[in-house]
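so the lab meeting is tmrw and i was supposed to have these ready like two days ago... anyway. pasting both below. for each one the top line is the aa sequence and the line under it is the structure tokens. i havent really looked at them closely yet so no promises
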Amino acid sequence: MTELTKQLNDQITAIRTNIDDIGNLPNKVDEFCGALALSMRSNYASVTGIFSAYGTEKAISDMYEDRDNVNAAIREAWTKLDATDPDLEVPVQLLTISDEWRNFKGLVQAARADFDNTDLSQNWAGDAAAAYVGIRNRQKLALESVPLACEQIATSLGNLASSELTLYVELAQKSREMVTEVTALVGDLTSSTVKIVINPWDIAEYVDSMANLVVTMENLKTLIMGVVSAMATSSAAKIAENNMIGQSYSIIDGLHNNKWPTAVSAAHTGGLRDVIGDATTSDGDKSDWEPGTTVVVATS
């Protein structure tokens, strides 16, 4: 596993954890507001003076309106994140495909080495030998060009995956911030602690905090949806890049119409044997192979 793959997987895990936690936030907000309303009513005499301008019940009503707005922002962000979840591993898959291209590049390079080690061009002469040289020249060009194309494609895919990492880090941070902002408030007061006598000024602070939380959740929702939209735009760029990669196949030197060069050209209608001959030198046909000018020294 490459370092980039590990970094992406770490962010994907963090984002998915945050998605689960965000999905649970509305229930916590509901419980918090219910406990806060009960505390306000239980301490009615104490808080009446604080909310005397418009009354305790009006303060409770406004607090519930804030609750609804907070939960609406949370749910909208969660819906967007949840819809994104299935596609989070796309950059990791791109890196896997990039590795496969490099593996194929290695196979072609190994084939090129075998190709070079079995060159008989200097050992024979004649029509059949000339055809043999033509075959080798066509395939040599492909063997030289394909590894370069493989590396270009692998690099392009790796760059696309790398460009996603910044967005993933930002999404993980903003979605976690949504969780921490809510839990920092609602974790202080739940139905299990509501029986504790609360200072009236603490109640007023909680009410103000709920109003402030509306703004915070709206801002975080906007940021989260902005990052998700940027990821979607990046995905569209991936499609365009893949299309360009596909188009590049047809212009790889030595691969006519995206196909590996055949051993014989279309002009040789007699078949492979007629082109390279039968390796005899005495039957007088045009396919005769003749010793070339290269001196071959036998080794013991």
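ok protien two:
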Amino acid sequence: MTPDQFIKEVSQAGQITTMVAEVARAKAIAQVLGQVKIVDKSGKKVDIQALAPKKDPESKSE
């Protein structure tokens, strides 16, 4: 499915507002997580960057 087809389907389903809200929510969560210190049960700092998907510089967006 091309990006244009995806947007057309989402629009026809009346879900554009829902998608915009979800993107805003995800960005807000990412912002908060970037500013807080997260620790495990033993008090050891959790590296949230290690949990993020790795970006492959050789891969191309399709």
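from a quick look at the 2nd one: Helices lie at 3-12, 16-35, 48-51. The CA atoms of residues 49 and 56 lie 15 Å apart. will dig more after coffe
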